[in-house]
Amino acid sequence: MRVPILKQGEYLIATVQAGSGDGDMTQLMHDVSYQVGSTRARGVVLDVSALDVLDSYSTRTLRTIAHTTRLRGATTVIVGIQPEVAFAMIQLGLGLDGVPTALDLEAGLRVLRLELDTRDAAAPS
Amino acid sequence: MEALAVPIRTEADIVSARHTGRRMAAELGFSNSQLTMIATAISELARNVMTYAGSGEVLLELCDNGARRGILVIARDEGPGIADIDLAMQDGFSTGRSLGLGLPGARRLMDEFEIVSELGHGTTVTARKWASR
Questions:
Q1: CATH of B3-130, one of 3.40.640.10, 3.90.660.20, 3.30.565.10, 3.40.50.720
Q2: Domain containing A104: what range?
Q3: Among A69, B76, B110, B112, which one is least packed by beta carbons within 10 Å?
Q4: What is the CATH number of the domain that holds A80?
Q5: Quick check: B37 and A22 CB within 8 A?
Q6: Model confidence over B23-76: pLDDT tens digits?
Q7: What whole-number distance in Å separates Cα of residue A52 and Cα of residue A98?
């Protein structure tokens, strides 16, 4: 099932559904990467709150999405990692390699706002 | 005791294996955290089967050691086998396209963990997690 991507102002919001597989995540990576260009979005929120497992493969895909969109000029924030999932990730030895995270969608949008304001202040257009 | 074999051929089978394992383990009174750890370990082991052997199976069984009940997870394949198990158990070591955390990570998530592998004949990983009483 393809992950739907919503546009909200200068942000893209993708909510990953429970049971999304590797193929869906790879598709999401391509979709987000292209839509950052077509919508001129500057920030992306990936909501993973519906996922009950983040194994090493799906974590790597999330990291790849974040790093790819970074190369496209947009910032990605991952939101909604469940407490049990976070605990298992640490046992597994997984982190997100500096990709910003936030508790939920609302907090994620705040993180993006702050980041973009900082960028705008540093390089006013 | 309930036992189920989940054939692993596609990515959907990995999801199916971890859902089945979580559902079975949930009957034993594991906490949500422990259930997530079990599901994550199954996911890693099933993923290894698919990545390195192409196909195989994950066997899930409720077990009992007299004092405690637990879940037994056996992931087996008839793939190329592991040349150096000690090396494969090190964090960050990978011959495939992965983070190299699958086997050592799965061991940390479970209570008991054993690998038997013969080059050219396949690999069997046996892991257990016990529910606290």
A1: 3.30.565.10
A2: 5-122
A3: B112
A4: 3.30.750.24
A5: no
A6: 999 999 999 999 999 999 999 999 999 988 999 999 999 999 889 999 999 999
A7: 22
Give the tens place of pLDDT for each residue, B75-124.
Answer: 999 988 888 888 888 877 776 556 566 788 899 999 999 999 999 999 99
Angstroms from B107 CA to nearest CA on chain A:
9
Interface of B with A in 48-107 (CB under 8 A): 91, 98-99, 101-102, 104-106
Q: Do A56 and B101 touch (CB under 8 A)?
A: yes
Q: What is the pTM for the complete model shown?
A: 0.90
| CB nearest B32 (choices: A23, A84, A89) | A84
How many domains does chain A fold into? 1
Decide the pairing of beta strands B69-77 and B122-130: antiparallel
Which one, of B116, B120, B115, B121, lies nearest residue B103 by Cα? Answer: B115
